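Batch job 17 of 40 flagged for manual review because the log was empty.
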Amino acid sequence: MQANCKRIVMALLAAGFFGCATYPESASTADRAFDAAQGALEDVGVQVTTSDRPSGQIRGTRNGIPVAVSIVRLPDGRTRVQFDAKGTKAREPELPSRFLDAYERRMNR
C-alpha cells in the first residue's frame, strides 16, 4: 500500500514538473501591451474600429481623427508600442500624451 502511495506521489510530481506549458516572456509582454493599448484607446475616447492581435494592429477614430497603434515584438524580446494620430497637433494636441498616460496606467507603471 505504501509503495502505491509513493508511485502516485511520484507520478503527480512528474506531471507537475513536466506537464505544464511555458511561454516566452516576450509573448506575454506583447499580449499585455496589446490589451493595455486597446484599453488606453478606449479610456481617451477613441472608438476602436479594428483590433487584430496576431498582427498587433489596433485602429480607431476620435472626433474624425484616424488613430493607429502598432504593437511589435522586437528580436531582443522587448515590445514596442507605436501610437499614430494624423492631425492631432491642430485638433487635439493632448491626445498622444493622454494615450501615453492611460497606457502607462494600464501597464501599472
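Reviewer: the log was empty due to a logging misconfiguration, but the result itself is present. The chain has a mean pLDDT of 81. Unflagging and moving on to job 18.
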